TrEMBL record:
InterPro entries: AAA+_ATPase, ABC_transporter-like_ATP-bd, ABC_transporter-like_CS, P-loop_NTPase. Keywords: ATP-binding, Nucleotide-binding. This is ABC transporter. PROSITE patterns: ABC_TRANSPORTER_1, ABC_TRANSPORTER_2. Residues 9-239 form the ABC transporter domain. SMART domains: AAA. One of its GO terms (molecular function) is ATP binding. It comes from Planococcus antarcticus DSM 14505.
Amino acid sequence: MKAENDKILSIKNLTMNYGSKNILNGINLEVTKGQIIGYIGPNGAGKSTTVKIMLGLIDDYQGEVVIFGQDISSGDPFYKRRIGYVPENAEAYDNLTAMEYLVFTGELYGMDRDATQAKAERLMQQFDLRDVGHSRLSSFSKGMKQKVLIIASLLHDPDLLFWDEPLSGLDANSMMVIQEILAQLAAQGKTIFYSSHIMDLVEKISNRIVLLVKGEVVADGTFEELQEMSQEGSLSGIFNQLTGFTEHRSKAQDFVSIVQGDKEYA
Ligand SMILES: Nc1ncnc2c1ncn2[C@@H]1O[C@H](COP(=O)(O)OP(=O)(O)OP(=O)(O)O)[C@@H](O)[C@H]1O
């Protein structure tokens, strides 16, 4: 059993509604240091909503969320300084240069301006972005922007990371570097929530997989445990089975026949 001080996050009976719509239905999760959690589920399952609650962006939930031993409903935002976040997109910052965005982010986390700038420069160099540090993000390719978001999430050396589709747009070489960075961070005791729809990657990267369906955790374990439970070989197969999706072929057939103008729609 893990020591109590290895516990990073504890969610008890988390429930959330948007109006009359039930989004989260009693989520329970205990997360310890060094875990890389593949947080997966169909579109609309409630993954981003859970993450937004943990980031303190949504507060009208029921249940208990404790991060670094602090109940986040206490209103003390200090726990956020130990969190890093890669959002699915950050277009709002397109008018800033990469360096402006990174300095702004570092300062939000309470870092010294010069120290942030120096660290950002070194990190950008690692990702071959040094020469474009003073160009606006709007001129960056998708993968370049993604690298800046990843740097921003790590500048302050956080203990808990929430990464939402972090590798989207990255080339194969950059993906390998990021996967290795994740593994090394986890080995040093950092905890990572990794949301993605790319099952092969989640399977490779995570040492624990949590599958959310309609606001409920329907599977939680290592990839091997999930394989045993479902008798499926791949995470895509497990996902299809546990989300009850067996219609991909007939859906595709219907779609293609509409595209080709079948008689019913002609
Ligand atoms: N601001 C909002 N107002 C009303 N409903 C919302 C709001 N944000 C999300 N929802 C609804 O909550 C549900 C869960 O959304 P959420 O974004 O958490 O899903 P997700 O699992 O992250 O999906 P995806 O994989 O598509 O990113 C969806 O039905 C969505 O329509």
